[in-house]
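Database export, one record per block. Field names are fixed; values are copied verbatim from the stored entry.
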Amino acid sequence: MTDQRVFNYRATPAGYTVGFLLVWSSIWLFATANQFSNPNFKINGRVASPSEARDFLIFSSMVGVVGLSIGLRLLFGFLNERIAIDGESIRCFDWLGRERLADDLRSIRAKEETGGIVDAPRMVIQSRGTSFKFSARLNDYGILRDLVTGKARTRFDHPTYAPAPQTFHYRGSSWHVSSFLFLAFGSMLMVFSEGEAWPALLIPMPIFVWAQLVGWVERIQLGPDGVVWTDLLGRTRVRAALYEIRTMDVISGHGGGARIYTDQGTVRCMTSIKNFSTLENEVEKVLASRKPLP
């Protein structure tokens, strides 16, 4: 018997993407309107002609509208898309909150696929001619995957391996240092251009600031007492004992990383974290030291 549980995209990095797109596109549209209302609007250092100003308005507005549309679509999925498990039943809801699939866990067929830029996994559930897909970005994806494939029915004893206390962080990594250099360059460019370079920096600058916060603050602590994940704002996102670690996914390639699934939530990290291979090996040793219960 499985406890009642809801899996969704809330409290995942998808929220940062949604927020960034909505804020960025709103600022872009506001700036476009502000520039077009300026009678001395310039292109390449000279006052734009009426036709040039019109073409700029059309192109720039289209960029803002597309960004806003994508952001709103992701927002609906972020808020509404979910999978509910209650006992041995499963219900799947799409990005509009509509129920698309409802069945018994033992009756569905589930398979995992890979694809996309980072070769990320996704799960496909099929039942009575209806299919429903959810990506690895879903919160606690690994636990849900084991539930729909039946692997969660196997129970394990407490692990016998206890790793030595270690802290894994991004500080001083090539990714952290390069983002600092780009942030410094962007700041200097804004100063020397007297603010005229802001359209080109509107997208990358918030990313560089985010990268610095991750580099200085975010960390994962692993030891005999369990695993603790502290996010970029210094908040403890997950604190779990070793016996609460259920499984782990490692996604290779550009933008890949690891997801450690526990009963208290999912620990996420990128491959750019310091000593990533050590973290991966230590968690695998913990999982391998468990014995299945009869």
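Remark 1: The chain has a mean pLDDT of 84.
Remark 2: The chain has three domains: 8-78, 93-153, 166-288.
End of record.
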